[in-house]
Design goal:
- It is globular and about 25 Å long.
- A two-stranded antiparallel sheet has the order 1-2.
- The two termini are 16 Å apart.
- By secondary structure, the chain is mostly helical.
- It has helices at residues 5-12, 22-31, 36-45, 54-63; strands at 20-21, 50-51.
- It contains 4 helices and 2 strands.
- The protein is 58% helix and 6% strand.
Length: 65
């Protein structure tokens, strides 16, 4: 699952309002019905900070930070 997470996240980020801080982003994903397992993985793997768009999120996950 870890290697596929960035690709999965891309589809879930459609319709999310950016810029968004990590906790805002996770809250929006939960409200949009993203499975809890995905949100949990993001909570663990996504660095704190502000994301300007979906590509920022995917890039941070791919860097493995």
């Amino acid at each position: 699952m870890r290697k596929r997470l960035p690709a999965q996240v891309g589809k879930y980020l459609e319709g999310v309002e950016f810029p968004a801080r990590k906790e805002e982003l996770l809250g929006m994903l939960e409200r949009n019905g993203v499975p809890g397992t995905i949100v949990g993985q993001l909570r663990k793997r996504l660095p704190e900070g502000e994301y300007r768009g979906p590509q920022d999120v995917v890039s941070a996950l791919r860097r493995g930070r």
